[in-house]
């Protein structure tokens, strides 16, 4: 019987592993691979479960032949150390199967711009005896009525959204991460900006989703997109969910349309819906700058309740400076917009007062199609840092903050130039207050 030179990893699971004397050793439980964004992605070895349930690692180079019924080793000498995933390694069954990816295979245009699920990976033996990943079996859209989904096999070179995993971290890496804990996201972003790309990517992979989202929002747009693309596609979607919708929309507009659509599809629908709305506005309008999640209240809300909501530590200070009062529903786009109340006025009123009785109904709103210069004049005229954005039907659809406006009006490279650009100035100087 001829040895196999091309096989799907899933077909190896459960196969009997025999020594060169054909005595059984154990059975295959997984295949260990390494994923490279540039270069060859290959299988490193198989995880073998011994008769005593211990799992060990057997390198692919120790395998003499893979046959339909079993695997034969070239040597009976194998390490008996318990298997542990190392940094940069992934397992097919544990990490790849079930993972979401996207493909731009020209022979499968029906899958472009869609998230697909990995069902298996094809391994092919080369002349150097390496087993490289040649194709990926993926499920298309799941049909209705419980029918089996269609299976496609794009070339691995046209599959995107996977990155190498990691297990453990060096002392130096742990020390850097610990140093970030008490720093502002903008300061961490400055440090990451100055790092070599490989180190930047390594640190990003170790940060939790929420922290990485906060830092990503403070980075130059080219680094935002670059860093996001180094993450597993499912994690990238999770990080986008943690970001403010306007910042998530900005990053997605820097990515190719297919990749952006895949990420939006993987996001929770409640998180992706406002991002999609923001992406529908022209980039130079107020609609593209606004956040769809301002502080929105009903007329029956008391001053005490409004102040309690404004104290939310997760609410940016600019958005906490103003509450907007509407008729239900309060989710944007809201019911009829009634007016707003500035935080300073809330602080001067008795706690039991209803916000409907202290509205500023005369403050004009901004509209989604207003340009950035109009917004700048608005803030300068009314001495505000946050303003309501309405649609033509007098519904509140969001709020624009002055910091988001400045972010777009400053030169594109303002983040990389630092706070005080110019010769002789430490652009990332940190000031410590006693």
Automatic annotation (TrEMBL):
Organism phylogeny: Bacteria, Bacillati, Actinomycetota, Actinomycetes, Mycobacteriales
Protein name listed in UniProt: Mg/Co/Ni transporter MgtE (Contains CBS domain)
Keyword Nucleotidyltransferase in annotation: no
Keywords, sorted A to Z: CBS domain
The keyword Translocase belongs to this UniProt entry's keyword annotation: no
One of the record's GO molecular function terms: magnesium ion transmembrane transporter activity
Domain of life: Bacteria
InterPro entries: CBS_dom (IPR000644), CBS_dom_sf (IPR046342), Mg_transptr_MgtE_intracell_dom (IPR006668), MgtE_N_sf (IPR038076), MgtE_transporter (IPR006669), PRC_barrel-like_sf (IPR011033), SH3_actinomycetes (IPR058838)
Domain called CBS: residue spans: 290-356, 359-417
SUPFAM superfamilies from the UniProt entry: CBS-domain pair, MgtE N-terminal domain-like, PRC-barrel domain
Cellular component, GO annotation: membrane
PROSITE patterns listed in its UniProt record: CBS
Transmembrane segments: none
């Amino acid at each position: 019987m001829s040895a196999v030179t091309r096989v799907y990893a899933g077909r190896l699971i459960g196969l009997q592993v025999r020594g060169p004397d054909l005595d059984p050793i154990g059975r295959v439980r997984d295949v260990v691979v390494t994923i490279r964004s540039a270069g060859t992605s290959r299988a490193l070895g198989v995880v073998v479960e011994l008769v005593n349930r211990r799992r060990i690692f057997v390198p692919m180079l120790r395998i003499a032949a893979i046959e339909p019924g079993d695997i034969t080793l070239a040597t009976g000498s194998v390490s008996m150390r318990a298997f542990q995933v190392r940094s940069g390694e992934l397992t097919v069954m544990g990490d790849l199967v079930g993972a979401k990816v996207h493909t731009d295979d020209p022979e499968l245009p029906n899958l472009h711009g869609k998230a697909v699920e990995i069902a298996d990976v094809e391994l092919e033996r080369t002349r150097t005896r390496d087993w490289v990943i040649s194709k990926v079996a993926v499920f298309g859209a799941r049909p209705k009525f419980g029918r089996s989904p269609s299976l496609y096999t794009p070339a691995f070179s046209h599959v995107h959204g996977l990155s190498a995993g990691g297990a453990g971290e060096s002392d130096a890496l742990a020390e850097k991460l610990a140093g970030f804990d008490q720093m502002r996201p903008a300061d961490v972003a400055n440090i990451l900006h100055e790092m070599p790309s490989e180190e930047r990517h390594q640190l990003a992979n170790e940060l939790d989703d929420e922290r990485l989202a906060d830092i990503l929002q403070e980075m130059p747009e080219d680094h935002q997109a670059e860093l996001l693309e180094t993450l597993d596609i499912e994690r990238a979607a999770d990080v986008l969910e943690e970001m403010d919708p306007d910042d998530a929309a900005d990053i997605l507009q820097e990515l190719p349309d297919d990749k952006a659509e895949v990420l939006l599809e993987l996001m929770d629908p409640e998180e992706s819906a406002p991002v999609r709305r923001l992406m529908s506005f022209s980039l130079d309008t107020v609609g593209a700058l606004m956040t769809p999640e301002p502080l929105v209240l009903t007329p029956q809300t008391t001053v005490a309740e409004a102040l309690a909501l404004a104290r939310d530590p997760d609410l940016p200070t600019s958005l906490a400076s103003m509450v907007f009062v509407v008729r239900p529903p309060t989710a944007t786009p809201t019911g009829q917009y009634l007016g707003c109340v500035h935080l300073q006025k809330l602080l001067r009123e008795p706690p039991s007062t209803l916000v409907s009785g202290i509205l500023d109904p005369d403050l004009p709103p901004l509209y989604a199609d207003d340009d950035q210069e109009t917004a700048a004049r608005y803030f300068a005229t009314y001495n505000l840092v946050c303003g309501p954005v309405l649609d033509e039907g007098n519904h509140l659809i969001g709020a624009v903050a002055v910091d988001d406006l400045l972010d777009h009006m400053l030169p594109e490279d303002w983040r990389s130039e630092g706070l005080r650009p110019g010769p002789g100035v430490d652009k990332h100087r940190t000031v410590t207050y006693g």
